């Protein structure tokens, strides 16, 4: 929240917004500046920005703003909607709409997983040194036999799964 | 204003209701987890240990280990 306020302050100082104000001219669509050319940034966690969305108003819109200063019961429904649209770019429903961005994100994540896997495979083939003696199958078998002889974890653990009479794993 | 007016939403007591739901939920979840753990993990483990030691002969166990050759002090 604080960072958003600071950011909007930064934008107001001399970001793209001030340049945009001078270069865009004339007709109704240009009054609604689309982000990022506006000093207006609303999101779900910062829904009420400091500045209104439309700052360049036609005479009609200025008249409406004058009317807004009076009693709001005098405003018609269409006028209230127009005032809302002057102040805010999107409604909450529009702002919070879903998107399909997650599919892109997950796709990129899996792509880079695969790429990393390919790199590691190449390294395994061309770069990795020999396995140490303790990781050879022969050594590991002798190690396991020694652990079973010591009856490690005989109640619920490893040795409890070994059948000492038949010399095999319990079914 | 609109032709079909919406029902008035809940205006008060939102935090209290949220807290109540979460208190009840927290109690339920923690008691449930504790019960499941007791009957899923703790009781079987106690039974396994009781069964193991019921007919356990420590000298027989030691002799088996000694014969397999793992000791340095008792061959």
UniProtKB/TrEMBL annotation, chain A:
<comment type="similarity">
    <text>Belongs to the cytochrome c oxidase IV family.</text>
</comment>
<dbReference type="InterPro" id="IPR013288">
    <property type="entry name" value="Cyt_c_oxidase_su4"/>
</dbReference>
<keyword id="KW-0496">Mitochondrion</keyword>
<keyword id="KW-0472">Membrane</keyword>
<protein>
    <recommendedName>
        <fullName>Cytochrome c oxidase subunit 4</fullName>
    </recommendedName>
</protein>
<comment type="function">
    <text>Component of the cytochrome c oxidase, the last enzyme in the mitochondrial electron transport chain which drives oxidative phosphorylation.</text>
</comment>
<keyword id="KW-0812">Transmembrane</keyword>
<comment type="subunit">
    <text>Component of the cytochrome c oxidase (complex IV, CIV), a multisubunit enzyme composed of 14 subunits.</text>
</comment>
<dbReference type="GO" id="GO:0045277">
    <property type="term" value="C:respiratory chain complex IV"/>
</dbReference>
<dbReference type="Pfam" id="PF02936">
    <property type="entry name" value="COX4"/>
</dbReference>
<dbReference type="InterPro" id="IPR036639">
    <property type="entry name" value="Cyt_c_oxidase_su4_sf"/>
</dbReference>
<keyword id="KW-1133">Transmembrane helix</keyword>
<dbReference type="GO" id="GO:0005758">
    <property type="term" value="C:mitochondrial intermembrane space"/>
</dbReference>
<comment type="pathway">
    <text>Energy metabolism; oxidative phosphorylation.</text>
</comment>
<feature type="transmembrane region" description="Helical">
    <location>
        <begin position="104"/>
        <end position="122"/>
    </location>
</feature>
<keyword id="KW-0999">Mitochondrion inner membrane</keyword>
<dbReference type="InterPro" id="IPR004203">
    <property type="entry name" value="Cyt_c_oxidase_su4_fam"/>
</dbReference>
<dbReference type="GO" id="GO:0006123">
    <property type="term" value="P:mitochondrial electron transport, cytochrome c to oxygen"/>
</dbReference>
<dbReference type="GO" id="GO:0005743">
    <property type="term" value="C:mitochondrial inner membrane"/>
</dbReference>
């Amino acid at each position: 929240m604080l960072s958003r306020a600071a950011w909007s302050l930064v934008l107001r100082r001399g970001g793209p917004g001030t340049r945009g104000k001078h270069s865009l001219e004339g007709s109704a669509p240009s009054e609604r500046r689309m982000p990022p050319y506006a000093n207006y940034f609303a999101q779900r966690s910062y829904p009420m920005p400091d500045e209104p969305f439309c700052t360049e108003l036609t005479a009609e819109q200025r008249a409406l703003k004058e009317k807004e200063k009076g009693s709001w019961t005098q405003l018609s429904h269409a006028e209230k909607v127009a005032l809302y649209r002057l102040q805010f770019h999107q409604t909450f429903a529009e702002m919070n709409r879903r998107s399909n961005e997650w599919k892109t994100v997950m796709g990129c994540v899996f792509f880079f997983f695969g790429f990393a896997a390919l790199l590691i495979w190449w390294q395994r083939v061309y770069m990795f040194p020999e396995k140490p003696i303790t990781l050879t199958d022969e050594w590991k078998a002798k190690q396991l036999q020694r652990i079973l002889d010591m009856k490690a974890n005989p109640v619920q653990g490893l040795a409890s799964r070994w059948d000492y009479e038949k010399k095999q794993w319990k079914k | 204003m609109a032709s079909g007016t919406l029902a008035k939403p809940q205006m008060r007591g939102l935090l209290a209701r949220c807290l109540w739901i979460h208190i009840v939920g927290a109690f339920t979840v923690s008691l449930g987890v504790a019960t499941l753990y007791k009957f899923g993990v703790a009781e079987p483990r106690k039974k396994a240990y009781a069964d193991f030691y019921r007919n356990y002969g420590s000298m027989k166990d030691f002799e088996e280990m000694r014969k397999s050759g793992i000791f340095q002090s008792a061959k």
